[in-house]
């Protein structure tokens, strides 16, 4: 993605308060990091967060691992992207396909408090020091 396209993408998300918050709180912190490993739960048809994470991975020589029950595997063809079709609580399957340590874990799947708690408690130990 060219600088112009990336800036256009940022302008596109600028109208969305959730993405503005995400960008200002997370992406700014990544400016000095290289070789990122990002685990994303939930892709969606728009895949806005996935697009942004993927572009950052391209720029920072990182890898994005996206998990969703819907098959979005054809959404992007990129060497920095790994799509895993499964539930976010299929721990054994996911463990075999992701790195041992991660810079970011982004959870945007089932918004049920008990489910979120289960996922966060399981994956939290995989965060690198100063990870998000």
Please tell me the overall pLDDT. 84
Q: What is the number of E strands?
A: 4
**Widest sheet, order of strands:** 3-2-1-4
Tally of alpha and pi helices: 5
* Gross geometry: globular
What percentage of the residues does DSSP assign to strands (E)? Answer: 15-25%
Q: What's the N-to-C terminus distance? A: 25 Å
Task: Name the features.
15% strand; 132 residues; single chain; 5 helices; alpha/beta; globular; 4-stranded parallel β-sheet; 4 strands
Please provide a written account of the structure.
The protein is of the alpha/beta class and 132 residues long. Helices cover 37% and strands 15% of the residues. The protein has helices at residues 3-14, 17-25, 48-59, 91-95, 113-123, and strands spanning 37-41, 63-68, 81-85, 104-107. The chain has a 4-stranded parallel sheet with strand order 3-2-1-4, sandwiched between helices. The longest helix has 12 residues, at 3-14. The two termini are 25 Å apart.
Briefly say what this structure is:
The protein is built from five helices and four strands.
Question: What are the SSEs and their pairings?
Answer:
Elements: H1 3-14, H2 17-25, E1 37-41, H3 48-59, E2 63-68, E3 81-85, H4 91-95, E4 104-107, H5 113-123
Parallel strand pairs: 1-2, 1-4, 2-3
Helix pairs in contact: 1-3
């Amino acid at each position: 993605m060219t600088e112009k396209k990336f800036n256009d993408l940022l302008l596109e998300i600028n109208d969305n308060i959730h993405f503005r918050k995400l960008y200002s709180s997370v992406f700014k912190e990544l400016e000095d990091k290289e070789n990122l490993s990002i685990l994303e739960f939930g892709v969606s048809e728009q895949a806005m967060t996935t697009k942004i994470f993927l572009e950052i991975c391209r720029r920072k020589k990182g890898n994005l691992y996206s998990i969703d029950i819907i098959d979005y595997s054809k959404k992007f063809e990129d060497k920095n992207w790994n799509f895993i079709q499964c539930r976010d609580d299929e721990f054994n399957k996911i463990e075999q396909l992701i790195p041992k340590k991660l810079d970011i874990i982004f959870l945007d799947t089932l918004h049920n408090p008990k489910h979120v708690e289960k996922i966060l408690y399981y994956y939290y130990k995989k965060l690198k020091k100063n990870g998000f």
